[in-house]
Amino acid sequence: xxxxxxxxxxxxxxxxxxxxxxxxxxxxxxxxxxxxxxxxxxxxxxxxxxxxxxxxxxxxxxxxxxxxxxxxxxxxxxxxxxxxxxxxxxxxxxxxxxxxxxxxxxxxxxxxxxxxxxxxxxxxxxxxxxxxxxxxxxxxxxxxxxxxxxxxxxxxxxxxxxxxxxxxxxxxxxxxxxxxxxxxxxxxxxxxxxxxxx
Length: 198
Ligand SMILES: Cc1cc2nc3c(=O)[nH]c(=O)nc-3n(C[C@H](O)[C@H](O)[C@H](O)COP(=O)(O)O)c2cc1C
Fold this sequence. Notes:
Layout: H1 2-9, H2 26-36, E1 48-53, H3 56-77, H4 83-91, E2 97-104, H5 111-119, H6 122-134, E3 137-138, H7 149-156, E4 162-172, H8 186-189
Antiparallel strand pairs: 1-2, 2-4, 3-4
Helix pairs in contact: 2-6
The structure holds flavin mononucleotide (FMN).
């Protein structure tokens, strides 16, 4: 129980202290994906597909798009990017692998459809991130590439009718010390029987 809660509480974004020189083993990746596919899935069932990108040219093209989107977000929202975001951005093209989580199919416009659709894929992505965390592989939950999913699909030859979700840049960590984030405790975010005002 303690181990599980520790992993769940310390699966932080790891953008620094990553070993860029060591490939992530296929064996580790497949073991982690085998954990991911145990996630809950809706009626569509097992529509997840994991696309691992290790090809330097493809990684460079994707990293370029990532940087453009992140810089644009920073301009549009008038926010200065944190050093940690810059650290990943600067070296993303060198990351040993980028793991994309795709869902076969497309969400409908209604909330129920979207909850069902993304609820059938994102738990698997989160399980994947946790499984990698447990094996000493650092990742970051990134979704901004979905803003340019058509270009990503073209680079990776993803067919029509497939939805891109998150991309986890993955590398073994170099002694990154991961600790629980500063979050509001359960008592402050849990209501009993009736919605309560904050
Ligand atoms: C929906 C979503 C999208 C995110 N997209 C990105 C992203 O594109 N790039 C990135 O560096 N981090 C991304 N993050 C990670 C958050 O920035 C991260 O959770 C935040 O830095 C808090 O750090 P922690 O994960 O260590 O708690 C995303 C997180 C969520 C939940």
